[in-house]
Write a structure and sequence with these properties.
The protein is α+β, with helices and mostly antiparallel strands. Helices cover 38% and strands 23% of the residues. Helix 5 packs parallel to helix 6.
């Protein structure tokens, strides 16, 4: 047994010396204090693993000493044994409430004292082991959080810039991940004489969903710059439905071991005419809000991507006229529940965006984020994360200028 440092607190010099001799013979490193006040002074400057204290003492009794020890931070656990001649069960309750670990009746019997010290030493050993494991867990958690912060920054870097202008078109977005990283990803980019856009929502949450979303974003980057499957063989842009079919074949391939699927919208808009077409693959149906407040849905459903091979999708044509806004969003918005369990719903989203149609995008999106988070969590919105990833992408064709 290692020589544990023990502090004996006893106002009787004879009894204190007797206890000290016994503990020293058993291999403990012993120090002495004549009362609680002196003991606290020693505890402040020296390290002790155990304190054996008499209950009845002048200036500060043992019960008060135990309370003070538990209230103060000594950086380690101190095992407390209280010596008493009291036999009332109520007194024992007082002692345990004060933080006492064990009791011994006076006069102390040597065999019992040694057994209690052994028990205390085992508990201290377990406390030290637990503290070491907790320290390792804390370090591991700190490293995981640092890695997740880096992953979140990488994912954010893939998102488009705010207030992105392409000729007569303006895009902006709201992104509220439910955790450090998100399964939602979206982008807006020039494509020939068109504006390409996509919104993706990978099933699940956390790191796996986030890595899958980045894999989808990488496919779109390759489709533009390397393999160019976003372009048709005849020239111009490819059919969005064909692009979705290609993605489905790749993510259903035996070479891809990731077992997951995702919903998405992919579409293109002619920058000259505003004529567009999009493919909806299981994603919530987008809609167009006119300057007059009219709301028109654009989409025909479709299966998610990655569920099974040999599926097909269709294109849905639309026209984005001057002053109109195309609204694309994830189900983290429509399925967002308030404290009463009511879902936000698509109609409420349409109504909010219609009623706020006069606001510029840079003002509208933060206001909607505030509204949605308070819908979800009430007055404690800052203390509660969203239950699901939230993304909202708006593309506006600016109105004619005089």
């Amino acid at each position: 047994m290692s020589a544990l440092p023990v502090l004996i607190v006893e106002d009787s010099p004879v009894y204190r010396r007797l206890l000290s001799r016994m503990l020293a013979q058993w291999g403990y490193r012993v120090s002495e204090a004549e009362n609680g006040v002196a003991a606290l002074e020693m505890l402040a400057s020296q390290t002790f693993s155990m304190v054996i204290s008499d209950w009845e003492m002048p200036e500060m009794d043992g019960l008060t000493l135990c309370r003070e020890i538990r209230c103060r931070q000594f950086g380690h656990y101190i095992y407390l044994i209280l010596l008493t001649a009291r036999e009332d069960p109520g007194d024992l309750t007082l002692g345990f409430d004060a933080g006492v670990d064990d009791f011994l009746s006076k006069p102390v019997e040597q065999t019992e004292l040694r057994a209690r010290l052994h028990a205390g030493a085992r508990i201290l050993s377990l406390e030290a082991t637990l503290a070491a494991r907790n320290a390792r867990l804390s370090e591991a958690l700190r490293q995981i959080e640092q890695d997740l912060e880096v992953a979140a920054r990488i994912q954010q870097s893939v998102l488009p810039s705010h207030q992105l202008h392409y000729r007569d078109y303006l895009s902006d977005w709201l992104f509220l991940p439910s955790a450090w990283v998100s399964g939602d990803i979206f982008n807006v980019f020039p494509l020939d004489n068109h504006l390409g856009f996509y919104c993706v929502d990978v099933s699940g949450h956390g790191v796996g969903a986030a890595m899958m979303s980045l894999a989808v974003a990488r496919q779109f980057l390759h489709g533009r710059a390397v393999e160019r499957f976003l372009y048709s063989e005849e020239g111009g842009v490819a059919s969005p439905a064909e692009v979705v079919r290609i993605l489905n074949s790749r993510f259903c391939s035996d070479e891809v071991e990731i077992v997951s699927y995702f919903t998405m919208i992919y579409g293109v808009i002619d920058l000259d005419t505003g004529q567009g077409k999009l493919c909806q693959a299981g994603h919530p149906t987008p809609f167009i809000v006119s300057p007059a407040g009219e709301v028109n849905a654009v989409g025909n459903g479709g299966a998610p991507v990655g569920l099974m091979p040999d599926l097909s999708w269709t294109d849905v044509p639309f026209v984005l006229k001057s002053g109109e806004r195309l609204c694309l969003f994830s189900d983290g918005i429509t399925e967002c529940e308030n404290p009463g369990g009511e879902q936000f719903g698509q109609l409420r989203l349409q109504r909010w965006l219609r009623d706020s149609n006069g606001l510029a995008l840079e003002a509208l999106l933060p206001q909607f984020g505030y509204y949605l988070t308070h819908w979800h969590s009430g007055e404690n919105a800052e203390q509660h994360a969203m239950a699901d990833d939230v993304s909202l992408l708006l593309i506006e064709r600016k109105g004619d200028t005089e």
